[in-house]
Amino acid sequence: MPKRVLLRGGHVLTMDPGLGDLFGGDVLVEDDRIAAVGHDLDASEAEVVDATGCIVMPGFVDSHRHTWETVIRGIAPDVSLGGYFDIVLDQLAPAYRPEDVYAGNYLGSLEAIDAGITTLLDWSHISNSPEHADEAIRGLADAKLRAVYCHGNPNTSLAAWWFDSELTAGEDVRRIRERRQDRVHCGAGGGLQGEGYVSDHGKHRFVLRGAQDHVGDGVGCRVQSR
Fold it and tell me: Residue 177: what are its φ and ψ, rounded to 5°?
């Protein structure tokens, strides 16, 4: 029998034009699905949560988060972008172990859930090894939220992987693309480099075209120019 949870008596923002907003409404959840929305729903054999005075609404979507950085957020919060590149990407990122990536992704995902975010895109430019990528995905999966994992470039050296870099992404991105993890969709993210699937725009090399030819569907893309 499915586990039933009834959110009782909240101000329900359904986001459904047919239902509208329900003051003093109920939301019935069975396992991981919303089974019913309305007033005075049957609560038999359900855990009842009193939502009086609360807003009940769908979770937020965070479309751009470097989740691995969660555990170092308090370091250099007031630096410039140049300082971020120097301290975070050129000094801290190369020292990251796979278990550090797991901790960042797991704790960052729990933090997101606590803030009402139930889906996030993890722009993971910490793919220093296959183990780093695996632990990033495991951290997202263990938190039980929905996520899109975007496999990004390694950050083992700022000079080697950013700005005028001629390095290309490793084959591990193909392995990642084939992974299937509960609630986590895996694909390619920004910063991937290589002839045939990046476009030069000045000194910038971000995924712009042809990425699907390289890794298939599931490509996250950020465009920026000077």
Answer: -60, -30
The per-residue pLDDT for range 191-211, each reduced to its tens digit, is 554 433 344 443 334 333 333
Query: For the chain, where do the domains classified as CATH 2.30.40.10 start and end?
Result: 4-56
Token output for 189: 């993210």
pTM attached to this predicted model:
0.77
Beta strands 60-65 and 146-151, pairing class: unpaired
Task: Please list the alpha-helical segments (H only) found in 34-97.
Answer: 81-84
| Coil/strand/helix, residue 184 | strand
- Please list, in sequence order, all residues whose beta carbon lies within 8 angstroms of the beta carbon of residue 221, skipping any fewer than 6 positions away: 190, 206, 207, 208, 211
d(CA 173, CA 186): 9
Work out the widest C-alpha separation in the chain, in whole angstroms: 63
Q: What is the pLDDT of residues 108-133, one digit of tens each?
A: 999 999 999 999 999 999 999 999 99
Q: Answer whether 192's CB lies under 8 Å from 211's CB.
A: yes
Cα 155–Cα 161–Cα 163 angle in degrees, nearest 5: 125
CATH 3.20.20.140 domain span(s) along the chain? 60-215
Task: Give the CATH fold of the 60-215 domain.
Answer: TIM Barrel (3.20.20)
Q: How many whole angstroms separate alpha carbon 108 and alpha carbon 105?
A: 5
For domain 4-56, is the CATH number 2.40.240.50?
A: no
